[in-house]
């Protein structure tokens, strides 16, 4: 007896959904390995094994380990940029500054591996060089100008020192939390977030 089973072909949208799901599996595997082992110590073979796919199939989604790293970092930095300028007017208002602290701490506490990877890259000039020709650098420059303008207009004394203090503290809390999140309960982190709001926003 012959049974006919009509299998409907997948639509282009379904193929795209499957492709995006597979890319996410690869990105998640790469992120975990980059954060734990370091970029240089992680090979494409390691990522493929972690993602449970063949090395050859990896190249159907990302042409190189470098492209994979750029995809991860670009996405994370774009989210941070969106926090600073959600309405994209290139102006950092006080309300946006307040919201930035809320959103950044939420991001830090829920996306610890990405934060850990990002701070690792800041002390690896040879890896940062990979981004020297990318369009992310103009974006970072524009964001830096927005922060500088905000402090200059709202901090009446030593605006430059306030900016340096802000940058050092934000990088510091990112480092200590990303590498030892178990030492800092959520309640403590939220209290520290509010403490920083008072420190940097009460004068404006």
Describe this structure in words.
With 204 residues, this protein is mostly helical. It folds into two domains: 9-63, Orthogonal Bundle (Arc Repressor Mutant, subunit A), CATH 1.10.10; 73-201. 71% of the residues lie in helices and 0% in strands. It has ten helices and no strands. The protein has helices spanning 12-37, 44-51, 55-58, 65-84, 94-110, 112-121, 125-128, 136-154, 159-179, 186-201. α5 (94-110) packs antiparallel against α10. The longest helix is centred in the N-terminal third of the chain and has 26 residues, at 12-37. It is elongated and about 65 Å long. The mean pLDDT is 87.
Could you give a quick summary of the protein structure above?
Helix content is 71%, strand content 0%.
């Amino acid at each position: 007896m012959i049974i006919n089973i009509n299998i409907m072909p997948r639509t282009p949208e379904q193929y795209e959904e499957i492709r995006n799901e597979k890319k996410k599996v690869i990105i998640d595997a790469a992120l975990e390995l980059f954060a734990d082992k370091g970029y240089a110590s992680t090979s494409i073979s390691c990522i493929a094994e972690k993602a449970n796919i063949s090395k050859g199939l990896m190249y159907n989604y990302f042409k190189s380990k470098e492209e994979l790293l750029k995809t991860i970092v670009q996405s994370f930095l774009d989210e941070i940029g969106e926090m600073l300028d959600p309405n994209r007017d290139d102006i950092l208002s006080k309300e946006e500054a307040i919201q930035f602290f809320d959103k950044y701490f939420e991001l830090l506490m829920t996306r610890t591996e990405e934060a850990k990877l990002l701070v690792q890259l800041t002390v690896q000039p040879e890896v940062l060089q990979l981004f020297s020709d990318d369009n992310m650098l103009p974006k970072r420059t524009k964001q830096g100008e927005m922060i500088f303008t905000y402090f200059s207009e709202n901090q009446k004394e030593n605006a430059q020192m306030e900016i340096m203090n802000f940058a050092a503290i934000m990088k510091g809390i990112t480092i200590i939390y990303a590498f030892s999140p178990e030492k800092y309960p959520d309640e403590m982190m939220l209290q520290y977030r509010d403490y920083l709001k008072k420190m940097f926003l009460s004068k404006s």
